[in-house]
Design brief:
mainly alpha; two-stranded antiparallel sheet
């Protein structure tokens, strides 16, 4: 049966996805600040371990019991862990070493595009011209925003790795949407613990070293907020609006990071930033005001 989205769900889901985008978007420059002192694969593992351990502690403090997963959920969970928790962060950390943090943040817009395309083409999620126009406006806004970066900053193997990471996360997002009925903190916890442990072990096995307490704590904090809490909000958004629209909202992460730069870091408010902001705001508006429709 086709899923029916109502207006209230769209607004709620949009706000949840935008909050997830803000947390994840800010985690990329934060990870860039750490990656110079930590092997990329080890850092990817520490980020997810911070997410998993933090959410595990949350569950223990709430006194929650076992995890309610059915056998039919396991293949989707395995895909989410493999692509989203294993390959995705490893490729991103590898790419961060070879490109700038700002270029990588802008390239992350591709995750929303890939997510929407997979949801529409493979899983036949509801689609209409209004949704497509909103997605296009957000994507064009991200392209305009990318023009603010230095020429050639993203034209590297590092950029290709970040784009590949986006594709992995798009697959992860669509896998997660198949099991979004499962408790959101539980999904994020499982992904964090499994993927984090595997990446740390692999990173150490290929010659990486465990960093000092400072970088470990920093990675844990960034992972808990940018990967753990962000994923919880993302899963909640999936329940309301599906993978395609959630991915579209998530594409605003670069713009949200740019706004933070203007407000907190006193970066210049340029014409390109204003144009990108208007395009993205228009795209989000089209999605948030989508009338009740049956796909």
């Amino acid at each position: 049966m086709a899923k029916i989205f109502i207006l209230g769900d769209v607004r709620k889901g949009g706000l949840l996805a935008l909050a997830a985008a803000a947390l994840f978007g800010l985690s990329t420059p934060a990870a860039k600040a750490i990656v110079g002192n930590v092997a990329p694969l080890v850092l990817a593992g520490l980020l997810y371990l911070g997410s998993g351990l933090g959410l595990l502690l949350f569950r223990l403090l709430r006194g929650e019991g076992g995890v309610a997963l059915e056998r039919r959920d396991l293949p989707w969970l395995a895909g989410a862990v493999l692509f989203g928790g294993g390959l995705g962060p490893a490729l991103l950390m590898w790419g961060l070493v070879r490109t700038t943090g700002s270029a990588a943040s802008l390239l992350l817009t591709l995750e929303g595009v890939f997510t929407a395309l997979i949801a529409w083409i493979v899983f036949r999620e509801p689609f209409n011209r209004r949704i497509g126009l909103g997605m296009a406006a957000i994507f064009i806004g991200a392209v305009v925003l990318a023009l603010r970066g230095p020429p050639g900053a993203a034209a590297s193997w590092g950029a290709a790795a970040v784009a590949a990471a986006c594709l992995c996360w798009a697959i992860d997002n669509n896998c997660t949407s198949r099991i979004s009925h499962v408790d959101a903190p539980t999904l994020a916890m499982i992904k964090g613990l499994v993927a984090g442990s595997v990446n740390v072990v692999l990173g150490l096995a290929i010659g990486g070293a465990m960093p000092g307490i400072g970088p470990v704590a920093a990675a844990g904090a960034v992972g808990l907020l940018g990967y753990g809490l962000s994923l919880v909000l993302f899963v909640l958004a999936l329940r309301e609006v599906g993978a395609a629209r959630t991915g579209a909202y998530f594409s605003t992460a670069p713009f949200l990071g740019a706004v933070l730069g203007v407000v907190a870091l006193h970066e210049p408010l340029t014409v390109t930033l204003i144009v990108a902001g208007l395009l993205m705001a228009f795209g989000v508006y089209l999605h948030l005001t989508e009338p009740a429709a049956e796909g």
